[in-house]
Amino acid sequence: MLKDYKKWMPVKSEINNNEKHPRGYKEREIWLCSVGENIGFEEDGKKESFSRPVLILRIFNKNFCHIIPLSRTKKRGKFHYAFDGNTGRTSVALLSQSRAIDSSRLLRKIGVANKKDFKIIQKQIKEILKL
User: Fold this and answer.
1) Are 35 and 45 in contact (CB under 8 A)?
2) Helix (H) or strand (E) holding 30
3) How far is residue 118 from each of residues 58, 60, 73, 97, 102, measured CA to CA in Å?
4) Which of 7, 16, 31 is nearest to 102 (CA)?
5) 3-state DSSP: the chain helix, strand, coil percent, rounded to 5?
6) 49-74 pLDDT per residue, tens
7) What is the CATH number of the domain that holds 26?
């Protein structure tokens, strides 16, 4: 599949040059996030903002956090976890795609995972990342 990095680069530059970071984002929240146009099988964003929903897994500081991209695919298995993210749709956490991001990529809050599902996701991430 051909990717259009020329369209992503101005968006990426604008995000980088915008020094505004959202305030008060929290673990368990679901945000729309500009994840970008990525390489190979890495999960891409969509539309003009190259965005997709993400789950905030861990906050390191007000400008940096660890996220899990979300999808609506019906995939199952140890690398996927389906849950109700309070967004009006079932979300599937793409556990193998978790990564750290600058919080300036976060666009707006769109939901929150319940505590039970979040604990299960944390447990599955720990299991996947066992070294």
Assistant:
1) yes
2) strand 29-34
3) 11, 17, 19, 16, 21
4) 16
5) 25, 35, 40
6) 768 999 999 999 989 999 999 988 77
7) 2.30.30.110
